[in-house]
């Protein structure tokens, strides 16, 4: 018996409704969690449905060296300190902001361990700078000037081409692209800092910059942790970079690894470096690079990696390509790409327990040892800043440690 037309229409509508529900479920948007800025939302991928920093955060696993159990007195000749330093590239005029940062880090960590501070500048430090920084710590302080040959642009860089290319970058709104000193700093931080004569016998460093904050008491020797657990590099914040600042970095890197496939680690982080799902427009503009990188204003590292044959060869290749001056290659993506390709992923560590801020981003764990920041807060400011978070990619491909 034929089914009446109205009934057929109702049946069709019902089927379409069911199909629409299934479609919406299968194409649902990623999980949303409260954002770091008011009532906005922060979109997360399958790599991070919930910010791990919202969960209770403790110290890293394993044996940890503590000040109360070992000799960390400032002038001890039998100190438990290893061959490491707090390292700061800073100018005399940044003294006020640097001292605030020093007091923060001394209060939360270094007053227990008294690791030395090494300050570097392309100009001589003033006596006021030396006096006020030494007053901020019981540890030894060293003041070093960067050799001109480490700081200035190499001879093969075309000054006229630099001016023209930097003008284009400025028109694209790339921050600091017109500042010669910024380009020099990025190159120095990429491939020169570990060559300074004053650091020749130093292995580990903790990079510290002015205008940063530390929120959590850290009760173990982080340098001993790096050494004892065979870690090469430690980070807190993981971001996307501006793709317009480094369009040739990945193509040059691909050419390098085509010439030197032996340098690529078996357990590398290639997927994190080339992901094109979370920010496909970045991958496209950066010619195959996701632009994900460790934000290097905080980094705890083993200089033996940077002094290695593979890293030195990579840096020299990039240096000859000229992108530190013709584009705006930062030391953060250069370090990150090198670590992602040439180091075993297990040797990179997220210091999730170290509360840290460099405006406008945070690493704020949920821990009773922390105060002054909101657990899980990633940014402060406009809601678009949430898009700069590359941790979902890192956690998806590498893990949360």
Describe the structure.
- The protein is of the alpha/beta class.
- It has a domain at 32-60 and 156-397: Spore Coat Polysaccharide Biosynthesis Protein SpsA, Chain A (Alpha-Beta Complex), CATH 3.90.550.
- It has 15 helices and 14 strands.
- Strands 5-4-3-6-11-8-12 form a 7-stranded mixed sheet. Strands 7-13-14 form a 3-stranded antiparallel sheet.
- α6 (180-191) runs parallel beside α14.
- The longest helix is centred in the first third of the chain and has 22 residues, at 5-26.
- It is globular and about 55 Å long.
Give me the secondary-structure category. Answer: alpha/beta
How many DSSP helices?
A: 15
How would you name the CATH homologous superfamily of the domain at 32-60 and 156-397? Spore Coat Polysaccharide Biosynthesis Protein SpsA, Chain A
Using the coordinates shown, work out and report the CATH topology of the domain at 32-60 and 156-397.
Spore Coat Polysaccharide Biosynthesis Protein SpsA, Chain A
Estimate percent helicity: 25-40%
**Intertermini distance:** 66 Å
Indicate the radius of gyration in whole angstroms.
24 Å
Task: Report the mean per-residue pLDDT as an integer.
Answer: 90
Note the beta-strand portion.
Answer: 5-15%
Gross geometry: globular
CATH architecture of the domain at 32-60 and 156-397: Alpha-Beta Complex
Largest sheet data: 7 strands, mixed
Q: SSE order in H/E notation?
A: HEEEHEHEHHHEEHEEHHHEEHHHHEEEH
CATH class of the domain at 32-60 and 156-397: Alpha Beta
DSSP strand count: 14
Low-confidence stretches: 1-46
User: How do the strands line up in the largest sheet?
Assistant: 5-4-3-6-11-8-12
């Amino acid at each position: 018996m034929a089914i009446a037309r109205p009934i057929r229409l109702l049946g069709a509508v019902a089927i379409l409704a069911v199909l629409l529900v299934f479609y919406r479920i299968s194409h649902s948007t990623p999980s949303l969690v409260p954002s770091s800025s008011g009532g906005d939302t922060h979109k997360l991928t399958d790599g991070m449905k919930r910010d791990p920093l919202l969960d209770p955060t403790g110290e890293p696993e394993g044996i940890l060296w503590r000040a109360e159990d070992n000799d960390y007195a400032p002038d001890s000749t039998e100190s438990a300190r290893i061959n490491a330093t707090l390292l700061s590239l800073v100018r005399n005029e940044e003294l006020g902001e640097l001292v605030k940062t020093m007091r923060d880090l001394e209060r939360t960590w270094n007053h227990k361990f008294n690791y030395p501070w090494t300050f570097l500048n392309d100009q001589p430090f003033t006596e006021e700078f030396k006096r006020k920084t030494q007053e901020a710590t019981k540890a030894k302080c060293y003041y070093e000037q960067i050799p001109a040959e480490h700081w200035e642009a190499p001879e093969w860089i075309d000054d006229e081409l630099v001016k023209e290319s930097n003008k284009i970058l400025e028109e694209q709104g790339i921050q600091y692209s017109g500042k010669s000193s910024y380009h020099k700093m990025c190159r120095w931080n990429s491939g020169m800092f570990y060559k300074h004569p004053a650091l020749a016998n130093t292995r580990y460093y903790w990079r510290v910059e002015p205008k940063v904050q530390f929120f959590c008491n850290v009760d173990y020797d982080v340098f001993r942790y790096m050494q004892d657990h065979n870690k090469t590099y430690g980070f807190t914040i993981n971001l996307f970079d501006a793709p317009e600042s480094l369009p040739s970095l990945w193509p040059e890197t691909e050419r390098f690894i085509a010439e030197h496939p032996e340098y690529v680690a078996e357990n590398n982080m290639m997927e994190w470096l080339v992901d094109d799902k979370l920010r496909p427009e970045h991958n496209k503009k950066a010619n195959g690079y996701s632009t994900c990188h460790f934000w290097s204003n905080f980094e705890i590292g083993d200089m033996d990696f940077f002094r290695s044959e593979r890293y030195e060869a990579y840096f020299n290749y990039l240096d000859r390509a000229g992108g530190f001056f013709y584009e705006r290659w930062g030391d953060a993506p250069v370090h990150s790409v090198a670590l992602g390709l040439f180091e075993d992923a297990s040797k990179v560590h997220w210091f999730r327990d170290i509360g840290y801020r460099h405006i406008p981003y945070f690493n704020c764990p949920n821990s009773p040892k922390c105060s002054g920041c909101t657990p899980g807060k990633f940014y402060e400011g406009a809601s678009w800043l949430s898009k700069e978070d590359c941790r979902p990619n890192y956690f998806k491909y590498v893990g949360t440690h």
